[in-house]
Design goal:
Blueprint (H helix, E strand, L loop, with lengths): L3 E14 L2 E14 L3 E5 L6 H8 L7 E6 L2 E2 L5 H11 E4 L11 H9 L8 H7 L15 H13 L5 E5 L7 H18 L2 E6 L10 E6 L2 E7 L12
Parallel strand pairs: 3-8, 3-9, 6-7, 7-8
Antiparallel strand pairs: 1-2, 1-4, 4-5, 9-10
Helix pairs in contact: 3-4, 3-5, 4-5, 5-6
C-alpha cells in the first residue's frame, strides 16, 4: 500500500467576524497517498480551497489536525512552516503570479536558488514543453503558457506534493487540456503527489481518486477504476 503523505483528521475551520461565524470546514477526514493524483471537486465556497491552504501550511485549522508523513503541522512554528512549504510543497494557483519583468527561465530560477535539491530551470520548463519559450517574458506568452511556467516553477524544487487551486479556472478548454497534460506528466514521470481543486466535474476522470465537497464536508470519495487522458476531458 502506498504511504500516506497527508492525513487530515477532524479538520474544522471557522472564520469569525464579530458575532458572525462562517464554517468553511466541518470535520473533514482525508488521506493523500504517495504518487497519486487526487481531484477535490465542488462548488465555490464548499471548503476545498480552505483545506488545501491548511495542508500547504498557509492557514491553520480551528480544530482537528493535518499530518504530513505522520507529523502534525499544528506543532510547527512559523519558521518551520516556512521551511515545510519551501522544501516539500509546490503551489499552483488560478492566477499565475509570475514576475512580469523576468523571463520564464528567470521566474523558475527564483525557486531553484533557494531549494535544497532543485532541477535546472530549463529541465523544469522542458517537462511542461516550454523549452523553446525560456527567454520569453510573461506578456509575450499565452495564459496557458504562463500557467505552465507556474507549474515549472512549482516543480523545480522537486516537491513531494503539488497543490493546485483551480489551475485551469482562467483558461479556455483547449488551453486547459494542455495544462492538465503538464500536471499529469509531472505526476507520472516524477511521482509527485498531486491534488487538483476544481469545480469542473469533467476533470475528475483524470484522477486516481475524487473527493466531492459540499458545505464544508466531503460528501463522497470515489476511486477511478477507468481514468481518462486529459485530452479526453469533456468540458
Amino acid at each position: 500500500m502506498a504511504e500516506s503523505v497527508f492525513s487530515a483528521r477532524g479538520v474544522t475551520k471557522v472564520y469569525r467576524t464579530g458575532d458572525v461565524e462562517v464554517w468553511a470546514l466541518r470535520g473533514v477526514d482525508l488521506d493523500l497517498y504517495e504518487g497519486e493524483m487526487a481531484v477535490l471537486l465542488g462548488p465555490s465556497g464548499s471548503g476545498k480551497s480552505t483545506l488545501l491552504n491548511i495542508m500547504g501550511g498557509l492557514d491553520k485549522p480551528t480544530d482537528g489536525e493535518v499530518y504530513f508523513r505522520g507529523e502534525a503541522l499544528g506543532g510547527y512554528g512559523e519558521s518551520r512552516l516556512t521551511r515545510f512549504r519551501r522544501d516539500h510543497v509546490g503551489f499552483v494557483f488560478q492566477f499565475y503570479n509570475l514576475v512580469p519583468s523576468l523571463t520564464a527561465w528567470e521566474n523558475v530560477a527564483l525557486v531553484t536558488e533557494i531549494a535544497r535539491n532543485p532541477m535546472k530551470p530549463e529541465e523544469a520548463l522542458a517537462l511542461v514543453d516550454l523549452d523553446d519559450r525560456m527567454e520569453h517574458f510573461p506578456a509575450q506568452m499565452s495564459g496557458g503558457e504562463q500557467q505552465r511556467v507556474a507549474i515549472a516553477r512549482a516543480i523545480a524544487k522537486r516537491p513531494e506534493v503539488l497543490l493546485c487551486d483551480e489551475p485551469t479556472g482562467a483558461l479556455d478548454s483547449k488551453t486547459g487540456v494542455i495544462v492538465l497534460e503538464a500536471l499529469a506528466r509531472v505526476n507520472e514521470e516524477l511521482g509527485t503527489t498531486t491534488a487538483i481543486i476544481t469545480h469542473n466535474a469533467g476533470i475528475r476522470k483524470i484522477a486516481h481518486r475524487v473527493f466531492s465537497f459540499h458545505d464544508g464536508r466531503i460528501v463522497e470519495s470515489v476511486e477511478n477504476t477507468q481514468r481518462i487522458k486529459p485530452s479526453e476531458v469533456s468540458w
